[in-house]
């Protein structure tokens, strides 16, 4: 499970960086893509009982 958790956290960090780049560039399409990616990671983490604080803003209400 540790490798799985590490991979999720790494991919979340990558997606957060990509999202920040897209926001800085004013690229609305890329912002939507990376936001959706992070929402998917939030669901995956929740389904597997993994707490990733950086995903809290992307969790469904």
Structure description:
With 61 residues, this protein is an all-alpha fold. The chain is built from two helices and no strands. The longest helix is centred in the N-terminal third of the chain and has 24 residues, at 2-25. The protein starts with a helix and ends in a 14-residue tail after the last helix. 15% of the residues are buried. The model has no long low-confidence stretch (mean pLDDT 95).
Concise summary:
With 61 residues, the protein is mostly helical. The chain contains 2 helices and no strands. It has helices at residues 2-25, 28-47.
How many DSSP-defined strands? 0
Gyration radius over CA: 12 Å
The rough form would be described as elongated
Q: Given the structure, what is the number of helices?
A: 2
